[in-house]
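Sequence in, structure out.
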Amino acid sequence: MIKNVSKEEINVWIKKIEDIHFEITGNQNDMINRGILEHILFECLRNNKYKNKEKFATFILMEIAINHPFWDGNKRTALLSALKFLRTENENTVKLYPQSWEDRTNRIVRFMEDVAQREYEFDDVLKVIKDRFKLNK
């Protein structure tokens, strides 16, 4: 069953992601095409197959990293959006988020680069989310 999604609901999510992007990059009004992000969120919110938290976060992470709705910081925004959505605020999350995105030896940096290059399928990224990100229950 497909859920009806309102423009207001999509706008709320876009604002959350824009705030995350600003927090990471310091760039306001850095969106290339708002329609890209609207489409990502519309597909995610209306489609029942992403109703579980891990699948929703996986979809958001992959789609932002791959489709580049912003000029800069798409992989960082994708990762932090997924982490914030999952509300993972424990020690493991802090260790997962890289201090420097220039460090190509960092596993998360390499992982996000591979996601952006479509090296992983949805189920592969979902497994990483489930295995690496410990959820607060």
